[in-house]
## 1
Amino acid sequence: MTSPTKAEGSGPSVALDPELASNTEADKPKKLEGRSPGQLMWQRFKRDRTGVVSAVVVIFFFAVAALAPVIAKLYGKDPYTLYAQEPDYPFLLDDFAMPTGSFGGMSGDFWFGVEPKLGRDVFTMLLYGMRTSLYMAVIVTLFSVVTGVIIGMVGGYFGGRVDYWLGRVTDFFLAFPSQLFFIAFMPIVTALFVSPRDETPTYLRAVAIILVMWVLGWMGLARLVRSSVLSLREREFVEAAKVSGASPARIVRKEILPNIVTPILVQSTYILPSTILTIAFLSFVGVGFVEPTPDWGRMFARGAEVYEQDPTFMFFPGVALVIFVLCFNLLGDSVRDAFDPKTGR
């Protein structure tokens, strides 16, 4: 018969009851684990159904834009071919250059119909138009956010003459009527590099749009960051960092910047959809992207010409743009509420 377990050393034998041991472990107090602000924000965000659905829709749009060439290849069409002139599709357009069939020529071959007058595939035009607008908006938003954060933090932290002159520069750019400035200045930017007799390359138009929108897009965030830094630079933890001998760069990077991430992130979620609308506006009025570059604004411009004969052509790009902008704005509200639950809806 097996003898009971003995404790090590010279003491008497002690039988260990397994049930008693398990009860002893259960009676021990559980260790409480703290959660970081990021984890708390994520928990609050996951409980917001509107924010989660909006995030899924936004991610879906970006995924479709990134995979546009793959989807178009699987679909078997592209946004540049004039299918009405192809021998395989002899009856896409009628005698008035309008799509034959109902709903703008929708069929198994052309899911969203065909473009009036030219006969291009609307589905792939929408895919590549989303790709153009979203990529451009992301670049402009990144440049505007970085510029606004740097200028706002420098002015708010150093104050004095630095803040005064940076404030006057900000006021100067805010004085420009942005929409009119876009229309007037875009041809000037392109004319600096290309002769008026030559066709402006698409990449140059993209660079010009990015530059103009960047120059006129950072001021609102700079003012927001400046006001936040002004309220933080006199706080105790900033004074303690100064006393400890930390450099201004380290104080700004380690002490102030982490405390203003929330307004920067929320404001960025409002800048991006506004940028998309502005890019579409520029193409709509003819100073942004031109044929044959697929773009949301170009599709709206063509739709405005033929909406009486073919209202379906404007339906799909219009619905896509409204859904994306709405979901991105709702996502911005949800992110704000997750960071600061006191502002919850």
Note: Residues 1-14 have pLDDT under 50 and may be disordered.
## 2
Amino acid sequence: MKSEGEQRAGLLYGIGAYGMWGLVPLFWPLLKPSGAVEILAHRMVWSLAVVVIALLVVRRWAWIRELLGEPRKLGLLVVAATVISVNWGLYIWSVNTGHVVEASLGYFINPLVTIAMGVLLLKERLRPAQWAAVGVGLTAVLVLAIGYGQPPWISLTLAFSFATYGLVKKKVNIGGLESLAAETVILFVPALGYLVWLGASGDATFGPEGAGHAALLAATGVVTAVPLVCFGAAAIRVPLSTLGLLQYLAPVFQFLLGVLYFHEAMPAERWAGFALVWAALTILTWDALRTARRTRATAEALRRADARSKADAKAEAEAEAVIRAQSPDVVKAVGRAGTGTSSGE
């Protein structure tokens, strides 16, 4: 069981990770006039540089040989790299074109999409509260679609791409740092090729926009890697249920930035859609906490029953040992009693 100090540190790491992910919309506009695709390419290239440095520090390389011997995992990592590049690129474009609120909605509905994918793809069975949450979430999407005059495709694409990424990562089952390293290696060549082509065509902003702009583009690697490292540190120190609650920090911060800082419009139908999404997440969170409490209570009851069973078995063994230790004296006493009775007759 983790100590109180470790759990407190894990909580701070988790808040740090999701807080940075929530505040990252403040960073992407600083990279203008770079386009979303150029920013994405730099993010891929510089993320690999940061991850390699991190791996050199922790000296974790054995996983590479193991991974190369498993073609199925390599194939899954190609899928993961593809969907996360779609997610990253669309998110950067959304922020830099004034769609921060709609992007935040994508991460609000991501847990609902993950549950739906679990039912459709993994044949998982849902509890009644989870079905209710999914139903309310679908209603929210319909309300938003009517309000927008079209489906909220930015939100849905972000939610489905990230849910797919999570599903693939679950099947690959390797560490966060190692996974990011593998994904950025896969993305490195096309990303670098695009940047070289962009430079050759005279459309690159790395260099012509000055040293400060170049430094900001290089910092995309740090912006990508640091929250992931904090998340990894949190994941090994706090319960999964705590991480599940912390994940809402990022879209909350993004939503508040969209409304209060970027001053994006929030008509009545958008408020209605978001209210339904938040209601669905409230149901989902309540159900998760209730299930976690029941699971802990059941585990504690089983532990106590096991402890009582072991105590009873120990007491029985001790009593049997005492009887065995005393049995010679008892046999002698019975023999003497029997002899005396015979002589009396």
Note: The mean pLDDT is 84.
